[in-house]
């Protein structure tokens, strides 16, 4: 039985999220432009749709060729934007596609809201 829908924020969910949420870096983990979060909800345990969180605004970056990527990285270096290390927190809400009882119309997931901290360094 799936747990009931609830938007009550529990510190436990944020704590657990550090191990249930998977972290990926785009385009690579050396100098990420974006953080991809996926994995499982810390409360209901259901799969979360992967979400991309941009660290820098680069229009059309996901379709960049290697050359365009190198050009952009050169521009970041000129602007003194250092992406080789960082410490960012992201607020997420469960986006599972399973059914949870008492869920208001138009909402999705189990209602859990949690924060994921992502730290990277060379
Ligand atoms: Zn769920
Ligand atoms: Zn959930």
UniProtKB/TrEMBL annotation:
Higher taxonomy: Bacteria, Bacillati, Actinomycetota, Actinomycetes, Propionibacteriales
This protein's name: Uncharacterized protein
